[in-house]
Amino acid sequence: MSLTRSDVAARVLADCVPEPVDAFEAFAPVNIALCKYWGKRNALLNLPVNDSLSVSLAKKGSTTKVCWLPEQAEDEVILNGDAVDRDSSFYKKVVAHADLFRSLVPGALRVETVNSVATGAGLASSASGFAALTRALAGVYGLPLNDEQLSILARMGSGSASRSVYEGFVRWHKGVRADGMDSLARPLSEIWPDLRVGVLTLTSEVKKTGSREGMQRTVDSAILYGAWPEQAERDIARIEHAIAVRDFTLLGATSEQNALAMHATMLASWPPLLYWQPESVAVLQKVWQLRADGLQVYATMDAGPNVKLLFEAGSEADVRLAFPDIDVVVPFG
Ligand code: DP6
User: According to the CATH classification, is domain 195-329 in 1.10.10.10?
Assistant: First the structure.
């Protein structure tokens, strides 16, 4: 018999005695994967095929306030100040996540989320959104959960949300258990104050295929995907080493190769998946030219056309000159 999300939530919450409060607000940052999560061994629980490693973007993220309204009949969901339609997939996802906790404390909720990242900015607000929601739910129900328990619960909302529970560098351990109780993220102790992440928003068009559907299609149809777990395992070891010895060239090169390898598996899927736009290719080619000219700048991309650049503080002026519209984030600011 396969486990449901509620079964797993019940295991995480087993020893908790709730002490609800009226309202609780929490923040979680967005994160950029340097070694990507791509492919699941269990789609219901968001259990990944490979470990992944990310860097959180400090103050860019989601702030979520949850109010407990036991007198009210239905949940209310508000996103960036606007009430969300009850028929929308966003509303249903938020309610389904709240339901994971609701066996402990019944009653309706009002969930208000504000994203400090503009929609379409090429930063996954679902990661920060589910991490903030998980923290806020734990807070409003007065549940003394630690970060690893929060990471497990956030992961069931969206896989990459497991990493947004923390600041800084974060590794999501894929785990081997069927119930996913060992599939959780932990922070790395290292910091890198000079690291910069530049976000290039090339288009804010809504993508046709989300990452959830895209990764499933890749797993199901791309023979090339067979090579991905080995690629990810090699890359994550290199990235952890690069962080430990502060080798920016190794960090940047490995991250870029990892992203391009992930996109290669998408392209090898059927129907083919290509998130890139002509502008994305132009940015990649410019990055490669800048490197040939001696500037240490690397690119990474997720399931969308926008490009994120990795560089160090000393290169910031040159990167800004080459990409005047770049939004530069200091992850360890
Ligand atoms: C390409 O976490 O959005 O950004 O678990 O189905 O919600 P679900 O997928 P999601 O996938 C993110 C994929 C990625 C790579 C990454 O962030 O590691």
Answer: no
pLDDT band with cut points at 50, 70 and 90 for residue 207: confident
Q: Is 211 in the pocket of ligand 1 (CB under 6 A)?
A: yes
pLDDT tens, position by position, 146-187: 999 999 999 999 999 999 999 999 999 999 999 999 999 999
For the CA of 158, the closest atom of ligand 1 is 7
Q: Which amino acid is at 86?
A: R
Q: Please give the Cα distance from 97 to 74 (Å, whole number).
A: 15
Evaluate whether 332 touches 58 at the Cβ level (below 8 Å).
yes
Is the shortest distance between the CB of 163 and ligand 1 below 6 Å? no
CA distances from 255 to 17, 96, 285 (A): 42, 34, 16
Residue 102 CA, ligand 1 centroid: distance in Å: 26
CATH code reported for the domain at 5-187: 3.30.230.10
Nearest ligand 1 atom to alpha carbon 159: 5
Q: What are the sequence ranges of the domains in the chain? A: 5-187, 195-329
Please, which pLDDT band fits residue 1 given cuts at 50, 70 and 90? low
Q: Tell me: pLDDT of 119 over 70.
A: no
pLDDT band at 103 (very low <50, low <70, confident <90, very high): confident
* Banded model confidence at residue 122, pLDDT cuts 50, 70, 90: low
Please confirm whether the linkage preceding 271 is cis (ω < 30° from 0): yes
The sheet with strand 307-312 has its strands ordered as 298-300, 307-312, 195-200, 327-329
| 302 ligand 1 Cβ < 6 A | yes
3-state secondary structure of 219: helix
pTM over 0.90: yes
Q: What's the 112 CA to ligand 1 centre distance in angstroms?
A: 23
- Quote the mean pLDDT of the chain: 96
With a 6 A CB cut-off, is 156 part of the ligand 1 pocket? no
Residue in 31, 36, 52, 160 to alter for ligand 1 test, most ligand atoms within 8 A of Cβ: 160
Tokens of 302: 């997720």
The CB of 124 under 6 Å from ligand 1? The reply is yes
